[in-house]
Amino acid sequence: MNDYFKTYPDAKGNYGQYGGSFIPPNLQAEMEKITDAYYSISKSHEFISELRNIRKHFQGRPTPVYFAKRLSDEYGGRIYLKREDLNHTGAHKLNHCMGEALLAKYLGKKKLIAETGAGQHGVALATAAAYFGLECEIHMGEVDIKKEHPNVVRMKILGAKVVPVSRGLKTLKEAVDSAFEAYMADPVNSIYCIGSVVGPHPFPMMVREFQRVVGIEAKEQFFEMTGEHPDSVLACVGGGSNAMGIFSAYIEDENVRLYGVEPMGTGTKTGQHAATITYGKPGLIHGFKCYLLQDDQGQPSPVYSIASGLDYPGVGPEHSMLHDMGRVTYTSVSDEEAVDAFFQLSRKEGIIPALESAHAVAFALKLARQEPRRSILVNLSGRGDKDIDFVVEKYGARYSI
Questions:
Q1: Is the pLDDT score of 98 beyond 90?
Q2: Active-site annotation holds for 115
Q3: How many structural domains is the chain composed of?
Q4: Which of 190, 323, 359, 377 is most buried, by the most CB atoms less than 10 A from its CB?
């Protein structure tokens, strides 16, 4: 795994057989401009200095690594959390949104367009747009608009236009479709700020690079706290941006085991889960190749997760490659397990996690029981303010609320 980041992706945006760019010629021309700009601008002292200044003075980075002592005492193991919930706007999403918006500024773009599921990417991009004085348009499925109402309000307060998407399942996949169409209508003045390590090249690479700050910080912090590297590193995986952020620091350290945690939802049947790598096969979606939950015609299958940010039928092409390599183990937890972990972390550590992040916490609790003497580092990718109304309405009686 030496020189990993110089090898993947290749010049065409491929991660082995995955990735690439399968889009119309006019849009491909715009993608190539973005790629050229990224390679030239992102390595400049001016760009790096401005982004570092934003990270420190606006986002509040570095976020801490925290030892969850009471959870560790209860379940075994030594459970540590990388506190991305303390990043400004409450999740890891701002890491790439500020980078993408800064790139848009250098490109002379006037408008940021994106999809959102749980609303965290939408809030982060609306925040970045406000910071740089740019227009912002967020496409969001009607199901998620209802489910994640607090984040919808935040986006509107920040000045973004929220576009409801009523087609299909009215969730994340349809929001991506709608946002892509809006971008294709005016690619010259706008830029599509993809919310994960998905989409056509260069977005999986760009988002990974902007998210690497998570892993860089965590590796240094964990070693300072313990004098060693963690035995295992865990993160939830929908598209997979938070996971690539923290995995990136350890990919070349083959003694550190990496686990991506997918949503098993309510069962194994089609439409009851979004466990893409567990049940999918290679296919095309949104201009790139990856593991995909699909029907016999190769069309994306319906998906479901209690966590709106995880209910996507595809996954990042880099995750697809890392699965085939055997470098990352992809597993899954159910809605019920994620909700229980949500309450365990809230009541034992005073930290209310996002339902997305609760999937990773749930697997950490399982792993801690299995390996009581080993250390586990979880990327706690976001906080759960956005989820509390939904959780209380559906699970409040069970958990005595």
A1: yes
A2: yes
A3: 2
A4: 359
Catalytic pick among 190, 357, 375, 381: 381
* 379 vs 360: CA distance, rounded Å: 8
Q: Write down the catalytic residue from 30, 84, 100, 115.
A: 115
What's the rounded mean pLDDT across residues 274-278?
Answer: 98
10-47 as b/e: b if 16+ CB within 10 A: eeebbbbebbbbebeeebeebbeebbebbeebbeeeeb
In-domain check, residue 391: yes
Tell me: do 148 and 64 sit in the same domain.
Answer: no
Amino acid sitting at position 398: R
Q: What is the pLDDT of residue 30?
A: 87
What are the backbone angles phi and psi of residue 79, rounded to the nearest 5°? Answer: -100, 120
SS3 assignment, position 118: coil
3-state secondary structure 56-115: HHHHCCCCCEEECHHHHHHHCCEEEEEEHHHCCCCECCHHHHHHHHHHHHHHCCCEEEEE
- Tell me: do 348 and 257 sit in the same domain: yes
pLDDT confidence of residue 181:
92
In DSSP terms, 115 is beta-bridged to 139
CA distance 393 to 149: 13
Where a domain ends, among 159, 180, 204?
A: 204
The dihedrals phi and psi of 319, each to the nearest 5 degrees, come to -60, -40
Q: Quick one: residue 15, left, alpha or beta (phi over 0 = left, psi -120 to 50 = alpha)?
A: beta
Residue 301's CB is within 10 A of a number of other CB atoms, namely: 16
Residue 162: give the domain boundaries.
24-56+93-204
Strand pairing partners for 165?
Answer: 141
**97 and 86 share one domain:** no
**Residue 75: which H helix or E strand, with range?**
helix 69-75
Could you give the CA distance from residue 306 to residue 342 in angstroms, rounded to a whole number?
A: 12
137 is catalytic: no
Q: Which residue has the tokens 């209690």?
A: 306
> What does the alpha-carbon distance between residue 401 and residue 391 come to, in Å, rounded to a whole number?
10
**Domain finish residue from 204, 221, 248:** 204
Q: Could you tell me if residue 74 is inside a domain?
A: yes
Catalytic residue among 21, 30, 93, 357: 93
Amino acid identity of residue 354, one-letter, is A
Check whether residue 304 and residue 268 sit in a common domain: yes
- CATH number of domain containing 174: 3.40.50.1100
| Predicted confidence (pLDDT) per residue in 312-353, tens digit | 999 999 999 999 999 999 999 999 999 999 999 999 999 999
Element (H, E) at 380: strand 375-380
